[in-house]
Design brief:
Elements: H1 2-12, H2 67-78, H3 94-106, H4 119-128
Helix pairs in contact: 2-4
């Protein structure tokens, strides 16, 4: 509680020459008693709801579509000779799969299926593009 009082007094007191006391004086006639120790609040037992997926995350493969594929296509175009002239239409077709496979091969990306945009390929592509 004294932290709240201190924060309040700092907010209301504009005069830096006369800072407010950290805690108010007890009313006259009452002894000065320490504040009780309050345990830190505990978090509820139920877990927080899962967050929505961020566009451009998760595994992308042939047949997928949407904003994540659009972002992938934009990044692939930034790497010379990987997806030159490829469409930016948000659809993961054969051409995108071939570009991802080419990128994986040329840059030695391992850990994802060939032609599948997984975590390893994503990290490598993001490090090389804007």
């Amino acid at each position: 509680m004294s932290g709240l009082i201190l924060a309040y007094s700092l907010l209301v007191n504009d005069n830096n020459d006369n800072p407010a006391p950290a805690a108010p004086s007890p009313p006259s006639g009452q002894p000065d008693q320490p504040l009780p120790d309050n345990p830190a609040p505990t978090l509820p037992d139920n877990p927080a709801p899962s967050l929505p997926e961020i566009p451009g995350t998760g595994v992308l493969r042939q047949g997928d579509s949407g904003h994540g594929v659009y972002e992938l296509q934009v990044r692939l175009l930034q790497v010379p000779n990987i997806y030159d002239g490829g469409a930016i239409d948000g659809r993961y077709g054969m051409e995108v799969g071939a570009a991802v496979a080419r990128f994986q091969k040329w840059y030695g990306i391992q850990g994802d299926e060939t032609g599948v945009y997984g975590d390893h390929t994503r990290l490598a592509l993001m490090l090389r593009t804007k």
